[in-house]
Amino acid sequence: MTMNRRDFMKVSTGASGSLVLALSLPGCASVQTGFEPETGEWTPDVWLELNKQDEITFTLARVEMGQGTYTGLTTLIAEELDVDPARIQVKFAPVAPEYRNPFIGLQLTGGSTSVASSWQPLREAGASARLMLVMAAARVWGVDANNCRTDNGRVLHPNGVDSLRYGQLVELADKEVIRGDVPLKPRSEWKYIGKQAGKLDARAKATGTAVYGIDVELPGMVYAVMTRSPRYGGRAQSFNRDEILAMAGVQAAFITERGVAVVAGSYWKARKAQQAVRVEWDFSEALDTTVDEVFEGYRKAASEDPGEQERSEGGVDEAISKAGRVVEAEYEQPYLAHAPMEPMNATAWYHDGGMEIWAPTQAPDLGRIAACRNSDLSPDDVTVHTTFLGGGFGRRLTQDYIEEAAAVAYELKVPVKLIWSREEDMRHGFWRPAMLHRMTASLDGADLTGWDHQIVGPQVLDWYVRNAAPAQYPWAPKFLYNTLGKVGLMVEGLATPKDVSAIEGAIGYPYQVPNVSVRHTHTDPGVPITWWRSVGYSHNGFAVETFMDELAHEAGQDPLEFRRKLLAREPRHARVLERAAELAQWGTSLPEGRARGIALFQSFGTYVAQVVEAGIENGEIRVYKVTASVDCGQVVNPRIVEDQISGGILFGLTAALFGEITFNKGEVQQSNFHDYRLLQMHQVPEVVVDIVDSDEAPTGVGEPGVPPVIPALGNALFALTGKRQRRLPLAA
Amino acid sequence: MAFSLTVNGNRHTVDVDSDTPLLWVIRDELGLKGTKFGCGAGLCGACTVHVNGQPARSCSTAIELVDGAEITTIEGLSEGGNLHPLQQAWISEGVPQCGYCQSGQIMTAAHLLANNPSPSRDDIVAAMTGNLCRCGTYARIVAAVESVAGSVGHYQPGQEGA
Ligand code: FES
Ligand code: FES
């Protein structure tokens, strides 16, 4: 084995002489990487293997949930290796410490980081492998490696006649040592990056052969369903066990930490038996909230506690007290469900002292912890196999469904598949938090002189750290898990990154205003929450960009013009704003009954401006067109960028038009797609996605389409009706 | 109880409760996992199959109602190794994101084209609007259907009298 390419790549010989490159993706300074300089310990993140049969395998440490990771990362390797991406087989990595995501420090896919964090090292890996193959060929031929070229999996002799397949060279190549940096292709020579490449997984998904979590099948497998407390935090005390066990096909029924499990030989038998389950619940610690009380609580907290100062420039209080005009507004956003198309599910098998899990999860590291939570196993005893995900959107970062399947499997010692119904998925979620925003601004004539933004509500990490902390401290004994979670919270910023989930997007307020204050009043009503596609940006985008629109109106200015003049120092913001406005023909007249709204928001490093054209028909909001201009740095696969941005737009529109989860005495009142509606095909607007040509490093695209569309739609409705809506979902 | 049905041209007999949804028979008794469970209530279309040539929500179709029927699932569209033109279009248009809804989308589109080989855009939207896609692939679905509209006259789904 040769250490190569600084310290983040290793070359070795795999089974039957294949060439294996193992690399660890370097993280940003504050987060651990695979290499520990003090100890010299080294763990790779990603494996690239080329064998003698010309088969190329890329083992992927990210999961695929529809955001194009599979295609995007493979394209990066393929480009520098100089092979068609379609020839590379991708495998999902089973969970192991070496598959950690460098920006986050755990193996999870979220935060739009996949392409951003892998951009450089994957290209370097591909380039290194290619260079070693070229050097090996040059040695065979006795020619100068600099004169050899490659073409789709072959090294070409300078004589223009001879060539060798990569497969013929792999056994020789691992002896080659590269000194110095590996040159990467200049942009002008890219064949695959930035081209309209297809999606590598499209065939499997169009023929029904892609294996999702729910499709996992094991010999002797049984089916489990779980009856959970209708109110979060309730615990099952007893149930009509004898009656259930006597039912046809029922194999087991028992109480778990999560509720009452019923197991049968088929899913339907388990479901039918579940209907007869009668549980005595202990509700002493259960959620008792009604949604109106949440907002009452927020208002009270907002008035009593000015909140943590998260950003401060100039003197906002003074600016406001001296201002010619003060504008105030309060915005409310509801709880939202993720509702991915594949309901939560997991398959677990406890055998030979270890637990195997198959699951559609965004965070297999955490899945290991969840799987051993209710047993004497430790995370090292758990293997998690990830599958395709039928959508994630943040929901599958929380591993409750794995915990359940594992708890049942631990009892039964046969393979168990546990599937949630859609109703269970809707009612036992972890939500995008409901939030309240209080905004105050001062205007001097048409000039915005002060901006005060008070964000009121919970933050996600409080709910997450209990689950995540043990994975960050893999050496910690299990009895410390709960303590670790608490410690993680106490030393926020040190043991865990600062939680910006409530304030992100608000602290990045881009407009040039002399006096700016952003505050967070932290209050948590106890409703379970988690990350939801675009997280804090999703609610801050609505508050900031709606308020900007209100201020433009108060200042008697066009909303585009009002923003533009405050962006002199923000060229990337300004550029997408101009382009979206121009493409949407901002300012030109529209047919009767239609109006436009505009919004601009940066999230996950990506700049997005959107213009929405909307109207009201037969008492329903109609969205006719959305024009988006996007700056996400270098583009790996434009089609995927387009899909992710337009998918984000529809996700945001769904929230703006329909999205609302409500609670009554702790119980969720929605249950399925009839009362938690998703946008349907006949409601879909024309979507235009304009991608800015850029040389900057690539940034995420899975989420940034979501935030601007919500205020842009609200602003269009205001332009149409003159009535400002300050709570979501919007009403016709 | 025993029921018999022909799925993708193959006859099967299954012994299940008479109220078992066709979806779970197809998936778990016959092992054809391409048909998906999304809502269990006829609201999303992920479970769409053809029953005697008509699109049906298999999650809400009890097995006793389809005893003896001819069923086509996503696996049956591409029998003999040849992809259905719609599947080909799905690949070249790069329609799927997470992909979970797409079997149902394709089955709905296949029925539309079998009956109306040259649908207008409005026809397509009207036929497809009950199939939800949380990832928002609708525009690419329309484009994919349009790309084969008019060219699938030769196609007859296996064993169907559509
Ligand atoms: S699963 Fe059958 S319509 Fe949704
Ligand atoms: S592609 Fe994900 S639900 Fe349609």
Automatic annotation (TrEMBL), chain A:
The keyword Transcription does not apply. Keywords: Signal. Residues 1-29 form the signal peptide. InterPro entries: Ald_Oxase/Xan_DH_a/b, AldOxase/xan_DH_MoCoBD1, AldOxase/xan_DH_MoCoBD2, AldOxase/xan_DH_Mopterin-bd_sf, N-heterocyclic_Hydroxylase, OxRdtase_Mopterin-bd_su_IorB, TAT_signal. SMART domains: Ald_Xan_dh_C. Pfam families: MoCoBD_1, MoCoBD_2. Residues 207-285 form the Aldehyde oxidase/xanthine dehydrogenase a/b hammerhead domain. Coiled coil: none annotated. GO terms for molecular function: oxidoreductase activity. It comes from the Bacteria. This is Isoquinoline 1-oxidoreductase. It comes from Marinobacter vinifirmus.
TrEMBL record, chain B:
The keyword Oxidoreductase applies. One of its GO terms (molecular function) is metal ion binding. Residues 1-77 form the 2Fe-2S ferredoxin-type domain. It comes from the Bacteria. Keywords: 2Fe-2S, Iron, Iron-sulfur, Metal-binding, Oxidoreductase. This is (2Fe-2S)-binding protein. It comes from Marinobacter vinifirmus.
